[in-house]
Every structure is written in structure tokens, then in C-alpha cells.
Amino acid sequence: MGGGYKIRDQFKPHHLTLTLVDWVDLFTHKRYLDIIISSLKYCQDHKGLLIYAFVIMPTHLHLMVSSKSGQLSATIRDMKRHTSKTLVEMVKTEPASRREWILEHFSRAAAQHKRNNKYQVWMHHNHPIELFSNKFIWQRLNYIHNNPVKKGLVEYPEDYLYSSARNYADKEGILDVILVVREMKTVRNKTLWS
Q1: Per-residue pLDDT at 184 exceeds 50
Q2: Mean pLDDT of 69-77
Q3: 65: helix, coil or strand?
């Protein structure tokens, strides 16, 4: 993880942004989106990943996550490694022009780093931001859920299938998440929501 951002406490919740190299718009087809959802479910079931919010955009995904096992960095690293291999194999079945264009981007990115093999799918950094306060958590949650609206993909956040906004709107979500609830405070006999 470059750029000075680092997960210091592996148990604390973080906002992560996982971005495809060169901002390749791979997540425009259901089959690629389903690979990410399947991998996230696996990490929930087998690696202790706790997901509070997510959105999968055409070129990147945002996650609000923590780890029961205290292995957040390792879990995300393993997820990126697994999805990289699976996505490349699926890209190889794309029609020729799209396949060549995508693989060229992945190949060119791999050539720039010693630690890659033939293809690099994800940028190396995850831009982790520790979620340190209730107010900041809600700011990040709204940012994540409004991403598809700002990009003009849907009118309302809960209309976007590949987002936890559906869970928060009491609709069936594509992935189970742990709902964040606003913290209640009592100040001078008044109950306030922060």
C-alpha cells in the first residue's frame, strides 16, 4: 500500500477503495460483478471479513470493512489475488477487441512492477482510511452509497443492485452486511442522534 496510507490497527473498521489498473471499466458486466460478490462472501464466511457497506462501480469498489481475525490487510490481499486470476481467465473469453484492449492494460501495468507476473488487475494501494468517529462513518457511508447516483447510473442509491444501499433501505441486498446504526447520545435530558 503506497502513498502513506496504511492499515495500522487490523481490527478497526476502514474505508478501502480497490481500483482496477488504468481505471479499466471491467465491472460493467454481471459475470465480473458476480466474481467480486462471490469473493466477498467467501471472505465473510471463511476469513472473518465484516462488511458494513460496499459499492461496486465500473472501475473500482468501495468497502467499509473490519476483520474479526485482525487480518484485514491479508484478507484484502488474498481477495485481490484470487479475483485477479479469476477475472483474467474470464476476460480471455471476451470478444476479441474488448479482450485484447483489457489484457493490454493489465499486461502493461504488470510490466511496471517487479512483483507482478503477466497481468496486474488491481492497483497496489487500497487507500485505507480508518473510521475513527461516528460522524466520519456516516460521512463515508453516504459517500459510498451515493457513488452510483453521482455517476448517473441510478436516480436513488437503493436502486443500484451492487451496493449495500439496498440493505440500508430495507430492500434485499445482493450481499449481507452489518448495518451501522446512528449512535444515540443523551445531553441535558434530550436524546440526540449523531
Answers
A1: no
A2: 96
A3: strand
What is the rounded distance in angstroms from the CA atom of residue 76 to the CA atom of residue 47?
A: 10
Q: What 3-state class would DSSP assign to 108?
A: helix
C-alpha span between 78 and 75 (Å, rounded): 5
6 with 128: CB under 8 angstroms?
yes
Quote the CA–CA distance of 21 and 130 in Å, as a whole number: 24
DSSP 8-state secondary structure symbol assigned to residue 182: P
pLDDT in tens, 7-50: 999 999 999 999 999 999 999 999 999 999 999 999 999 999 99
**Alpha-carbon distances, residue 190 vs 135, 184, 185, 193 (angstroms):** 19, 10, 8, 10
**In the prediction, which pLDDT does 188 show?**
45
Q: What are residue 54's DSSP bridge partners? A: 63
CB 50 within 8 Å of CB 20: no
pLDDT, mean of residues 65-70: 96
Report d(CA 54, CA 138) in Å as an integer: 13
pLDDT-derived band at 116, boundaries 50, 70, 90: low
Domains and CATH numbers, the chain: 14-193 (3.30.70.1290)
Q: What is the DSSP letter of 133?
A: S
**CA nearest to 55, candidates 72, 36, 71:** 36
